[in-house]
Inverse folding.
């Protein structure tokens, strides 16, 4: 079964992400990581994002969904460097069965 990792900047996003996942990709396992410090202007966001994506990869996710659009470029680069796909939550919400994930459904299939 496929596992999708969600990277959030607020815990309030977890419930909405779970609802979207249930609606658009029932049966897919979800893993959530919340880090409000990703928006902290005093830190290097690229390093922190890379670390968080690494944590999700360590939890055996097949793809990452970023729920904060401004971070998507860095999240996508970090995910690509680890050999997995990443998309934004808007793209995820607009697809059925993962069709909008780069590489198609195989990106979510083990």
């Amino acid at each position: 079964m496929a596992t999708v990792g969600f990277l959030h900047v607020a815990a309030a996003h977890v419930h909405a992400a779970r609802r979207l996942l249930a609606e658009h990709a029932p049966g897919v396992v979800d893993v959530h990581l919340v880090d409000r410090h990703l928006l902290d202007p005093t830190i290097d966001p690229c390093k922190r994002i890379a670390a968080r994506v690494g944590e999700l990869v360590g939890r055996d996710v097949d793809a990452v969904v970023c729920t904060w659009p401004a971070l998507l470029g860095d999240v996508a680069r970090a995910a690509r460097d680890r050999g997995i796909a990443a998309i934004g939550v808007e793209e995820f919400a607009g697809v059925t069965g993962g069709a909008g994930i780069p590489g198609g459904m195989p990106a979510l299939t083990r």
Remarks:
- The mean pLDDT is 86.
- The radius of gyration is 13 Å.
- The first strand starts at residue 3 and ends at 8.
